[in-house]
Amino acid sequence: MHIVVIGHGMVGHKFLETLAASGRQDLRITVLGEEPRPAYDRVHLSEFFAGKSADDLSLVAPGFFDREDMVLRLNAKVVGIDRAEKKVTLADGSSVAYDRLVLATGSYPFVPPVPGADRKDCFVYRTIEDLEAMQECGARSKSGVVIGGGLLGLECAKALRDLGLNAHVVEFAPRLMAVQVDDSGARVLRTRIEELGVGVHTGKNTLAIVDGEDTTHRMQFADGSHLDTDMIVFSAGIRPRDELARASGLEIGARGGVVIDDRCQTSDPHVYAIGECALWNGQLYGLVAPGYDMARTAARHLVGTECGFAGADMSTKLKLMGVDVASIGDAHGATPGSRSYQFLDERRQTYRKIVVSSCGKYLLGGVLVGEASAYGALLQTMLNRIELPEAPEYLILPEGGGAARPAIGVDKLPATAQVCSCNDVSKGALCEAVAGGATTIGALKSCTSAGTACGGCVPLVTQVLNAELKKLGVAVNNHLCEHFPYSRQELYHLVRVEGIKDFGELLARHGKGLGCDVCKPTAANILASVWNDFVLKPKHASLQDSNDYFLGNIQKDGTYSVVPRMPGGEVTADGLIAVGMVAKKYGLYTKITGGQRVDLFGARVDQLPAIWEELIAAGFESGHAYGKSLRTVKSCVGSTWCRFGVGDSVGFAIALENRYKGLRAPHKIKFGVSGCTRECAEAQGKDVGLIATDKGWNLYVCGNGGMKPRHAELIASNLSEEEVVRLTDRFLMFYVRTAERLQRTSTWRENLEGGLDYLKAVVIDDSLGIAQELEAQMQHVVDTYACEWKEAVLDPNVRRRFRHFVNSTQVDENVVFVPERGQVRPATFDERRRVIPIATAA
């Protein structure tokens, strides 16, 4: 069967993913995409202006189309459908035959019929090409206006602000987001957005757009007022792209949209329609989640699986310009007999409202503005008709006065409850996965895909996980080991709050036994993070693992590697010569690392202090390649040399590496600093990444390469160097405080309840009120830094420890090298028996 899909947007790609997962081998699929690039995330389009590229926004996994049964054609505009011949005609005159046709044509932006709407520098906000045109205009503009104060309009206003423009929103209705929030919620939202520096103009009917006096445009309103601006973006709603269906004779709704049934079939059973172009039961859906449901329904029906689209809940939770906004069900209380409970905090600018049934037992809807952490629980309560507690007002009231906020337990949710709407994961599927051995959030995400799209369901997924583990008799704790009934995070706070300075004191106060290979290195790491003492002091040395104990990475043959720090990857010619002379003198193998420094391999343990002394004399320090600490800050040459560079990436990388080089953390930390968006330093694959733009630095966090690569996420944009340092201080210390043992920032972020929004709230908005504390802690680390190699070579007692044998100065004769490519390498077992060892200097 040959399936032709017209349109390769978010919904069209979800259809393809569902078909691919079905395992059917007898399908041929041709995808005709009108745009010049594959499907990308339109929901987060505004992030394009904050530094994300088109590739970053792509929804297509690498290699997805590397299959014989699926072909993607880009720039393939379809101009006609011949249902009798079962073929579609393209703009280039070619045609493609089909057995089944899927319309995923989406929608187009509605532009009000206002005189002057077609003027130069008037845009719509829909495709990456639109955004690129806006970006070009923004570079020569000072102000911008968005016409439309709905969801997309406010996202667009954020984009204008990210472009550095004086941004305004003009809305015809008397309030923002008139469909989703009520009057009280809209007032709070307006106040919050105006506090961010965006002008809000509601109740404005635009009559014409003409020339401005000192600007490109002047918007003339029906009330006689006007607004001058250089740039206008229309975001006044969407209309279904049903022109192909209409011309082919398919049934179309009175107000547009291709009519579909519960299987997403149109009036022609050989043709399906999904997403924003489809009209089901008289309703058009402008959100992506219902479109995904349609895509899954159509795909499953095509492969013979019993299924049906039964409509979709239009509840939504978004962060608009940094403000949490959520709308649930009947937000306006239109249901006859319904009653509402409302809470308004004008000081904190938050608003919460729930709408309940006339009997008071069931939740019908709600509005949350400014703080929306209750969204997940309230949504599930409404969708699954869970009875409300006796005093439902406590669901939205702040905790206090002795009355705890009532919880709606996950046990009340039926197995059919959809926990993750993005990937259609039910509570039952999560429970089965837990029973099958997925006992961590990361494992649940991997095997069910829950929480891997928008991440909004992760708190609820966590609740389901913990509830199921408890049922299975699995103790839900995160104790470090049998000697400490605490997590790493809890031990960290005990050490810091109680001023504990050594392992013996920690064990006596809060542990039992003698300790083990798990808790000893962890305690050593915590003590170093908090107090920044030398790790080889007598009270700390015995706690360290092999690498930290010898301040080098042990290799397969028992020798060690030596990595001197080269901040930002910069090194002088004299420095290179000194490193080369050391390598030559001690017969070491040399290699340039991925972190832009030189690694020296093959040093015997007794040689380490002498090697360090020579490197220190040449101006080098320990590179901490052996520690759970900052490793490198990789950089490109930036604006100093590169003709594309807009920021001094080397200078900033050096400053950052010198600031954070003494920090001990739960796991290794890597930075990247790129001087422009060409991204030569691969900053978006690092724990902390920075990319220079002409407006400042964009800050990315929680990325990593390695076995499980993770793309870093944009946390803030257009920052000065001082702002970067401040936010990075907070981010790193919050990670050091709260991560588990041996947890990279990427894994920590994946398991962080509340996800990126929560991390932003803590680091940027200081939601926990600890920002100054985090900064002060980091400053203590900076102020108390000392090179560990230097401390070791200057302390006779420490230096005495660097020998192969405790009771002898004899070297290890089993260390054998053989020549290769002009250097040396460890001999294999067979080579050891027949090769004369290569001499190295004593």
Count of beta strands: 39
Question: What assembly state would you assign to the polypeptide chains in this entry?
Answer: single chain
**Range of helix content:** 25-40%
Terminal CA distance: 74 Å
Structural class: alpha/beta
Shape: globular
Spans of 5+ residues with little confidence (pLDDT < 50)?
A: none
- Radius of gyration (Å): 31 Å
Global mean pLDDT: 91
Work out the strand percent: 15-25%
Count of DSSP-assigned helices: 26
Features:
21% strand; 26 helices; 842 residues; alpha/beta; five-stranded parallel sheet; 30% helix
Walk me through what this model shows.
With 842 residues, the chain is an alpha/beta fold. 30% of the residues lie in helices and 21% in strands. The strands form eleven sheets. The protein has a five-stranded parallel β-sheet with strand order 3-2-1-7-19, with no helix packed on it. It is globular and about 95 Å long. It starts with a strand and ends in an 8-residue tail after the last helix.
Please summarize what this structure is.
The chain is built from 26 helices and 39 strands.
Would you spell out the secondary-structure blueprint of this structure?
Elements: E1 2-6, H1 10-22, E2 28-32, H2 54-57, E3 70-73, E4 78-82, E5 87-90, E6 95-97, E7 100-103, E8 107-109, E9 122-124, H3 128-138, E10 143-147, H4 151-162, E11 166-171, H5 183-195, E12 199-202, E13 206-211, E14 217-221, E15 226-229, E16 231-234, E17 238-240, H6 243-247, E18 258-260, E19 271-273, E20 278-280, E21 283-284, H7 288-302, E22 316-320, E23 323-329, E24 339-345, E25 350-356, E26 363-369, H8 375-383, E27 418-420, E28 425-426, H9 427-435, H10 441-448, H11 458-471, H12 488-498, H13 503-510, H14 519-531, H15 538-541, H16 546-550, E29 553-554, E30 560-562, H17 573-586, E31 589-592, E32 598-603, H18 608-617, E33 630-635, H19 649-660, E34 669-674, E35 688-693, E36 696-701, E37 713-719, H20 721-738, H21 745-750, H22 755-763, H23 771-783, H24 788-794, H25 796-799, E38 817-820, E39 823-826, H26 829-834
Parallel strand pairs: 1-2, 1-7, 2-3, 7-19, 9-16, 10-11, 10-16, 11-12, 18-20, 33-34, 34-35
Antiparallel strand pairs: 4-5, 5-6, 8-17, 13-14, 14-15, 20-21, 22-23, 23-26, 24-25, 25-26, 27-28, 29-30, 30-32, 31-32, 35-36, 36-37, 38-39
